[in-house]
């Protein structure tokens, strides 16, 4: 815990990147891509920060030079919908739709990080070209299992691909499959609800072998959610208790509906055998015995709808970094400025907080190459702040995306103005 406090103690606003270019990428023809737009996703890989705006523009910035490397939109009518860093082969996968296709089909492209670093985003190659990913078709990337799941709505076929080399492993063809959930090593198939039960199947994620088939009895109420976590099945129906079912032993645990309200989002902590729930701006940690493990102090989320793009859980699953409501006693946080809170997941303690009165920009000595204003005598060392137009309070306003680079120990935030801010010590 003290190590984490030390790591985040002196984090300051370092630099600002702007995804907006009035000229836009030279290839762009779509008016929506030429407008300033809020950041909704940030991904970092090695020394590159990728920021995707709601408009569909995606930009790569270098942390070494702090310059924009390139736009990832390589076609005149490309709208990028999501990003995924594939660490198996050190590449970035972008999922896009195109105006020429009436934005109806998802297209995937894999581009090696080294090509992007050289400013060659068009050096990638198309993925899953054989698949018809028209809405409501989809593609999902499963980092834990190293798999990709696609769904072709046209013929109701799910396919599982290897994330290392994109070879197809197997397919699932059944019109009654309503949803698929993945968990380490296994996959849960949820079928169409029948009069008094829902049919379920558990498959090996490696080869699609059926490991177990069973029915789960239901009340007549609407099903709020069915979630799979290893051997545990979480089932919640409207106005009913949460049921936690062990699918191998059929042991059933219930949590009273007054204790466990239906959350707006989950994050499963596979390392700790726990799960996070998000509801009404609050975060809680539960175990599979149905016990509340942690309530977080001083961790009221900014976004009421639980925008998980502004929440980051570390790979050791010991810390959660979130964009939160600022303290009422912070005189600089009036208006729309929140704070970036770092909390311990197991204790709920707030370990560090970046807020308007402690995240002042880092000063650095100017070199001759720096563009610094103001005259100074030779006997004085000139100082300037890296090119940042926003104040710290402005950088903490309306944060719409957040990412923590664990290797560099840097936090990246994006806001509604299309600006990306780097926080580092």
From TrEMBL:
Record-linked InterPro entries: DUF7899 (IPR057221), WD40/YVTN_repeat-like_dom_sf (IPR015943)
Signal peptide: none
SUPFAM superfamilies for this protein: Tricorn protease domain 2
Protein's UniProt name: Transducin/WD40 repeat-like superfamily protein
Species: Lupinus angustifolius (Narrow-leaved blue lupine)
């Amino acid at each position: 815990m003290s190590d984490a406090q030390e790591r985040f103690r002196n984090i300051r606003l370092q630099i600002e990147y702007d995804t907006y270019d009035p000229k836009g990428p030279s290839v762009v023809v779509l008016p929506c891509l030429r407008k300033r737009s809020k950041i909704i996703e940030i991904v970092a890989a090695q020394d590159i920060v990728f920021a995707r705006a709601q408009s569909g523009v995606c930009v790569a910035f270098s942390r070494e030079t702090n310059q924009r490397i390139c736009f990832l939109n390589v076609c005149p009518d490309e709208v990028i919908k999501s990003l995924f860093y594939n660490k198996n082969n050190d590449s970035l996968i972008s999922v896009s739709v195109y105006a020429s296709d009436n934005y109806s089909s998802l297209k995937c492209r894999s581009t090696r990080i080294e090509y992007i670093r050289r400013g060659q985003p068009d050096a990638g190659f198309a993925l899953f070209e054989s698949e018809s990913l028209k809405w409501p078709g989809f593609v999902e990337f499963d980092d834990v299992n190293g798999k990709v799941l696609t769904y072709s709505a046209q013929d109701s076929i799910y396919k599982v691909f290897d994330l290392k080399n994109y070879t197809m492993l197997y397919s699932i063809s059944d019109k009654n499959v309503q949803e698929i959930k993945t968990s380490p090593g296994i996959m849960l198939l949820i079928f169409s609800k029948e009069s008094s039960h829902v049919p379920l199947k558990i498959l090996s994620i490696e080869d699609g072998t059926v490991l177990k088939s069973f029915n789960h009895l239901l009340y007549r109420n609407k099903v709020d959610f069915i979630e799979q976590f290893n051997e545990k099945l979480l089932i919640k129906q409207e106005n009913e208790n949460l049921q936690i079912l062990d699918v191998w032993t059929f042991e059933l645990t219930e949590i009273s509906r007054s204790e466990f309200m239906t959350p707006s989002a989950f994050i499963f902590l596979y390392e700790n055998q726990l799960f996070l729930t998000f509801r009404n701006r609050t975060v809680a940690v539960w175990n599979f015995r149905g016990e509340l493990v942690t309530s977080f102090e001083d961790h009221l989320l900014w976004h009421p709808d639980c925008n998980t793009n502004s929440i980051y859980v570390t790979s050791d699953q010991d810390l959660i970094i979130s964009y939160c409501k600022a303290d009422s006693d912070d005189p600089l946080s009036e208006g729309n400025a929140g704070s970036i809170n770092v909390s311990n997941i197991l204790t709920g303690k707030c370990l560090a907080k970046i807020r308007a009165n402690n995240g002042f920009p880092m000063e650095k000595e100017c070199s001759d190459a720096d563009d610094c204003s103001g005259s100074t005598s030779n006997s004085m060392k000139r100082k300037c702040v890296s090119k940042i137009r926003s104040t710290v309070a402005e950088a903490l306003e309306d944060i719409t995306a957040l990412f923590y680079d664990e290797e560099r120990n840097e936090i990246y935030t994006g806001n509604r103005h299309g600006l990306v801010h780097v926080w580092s010590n």
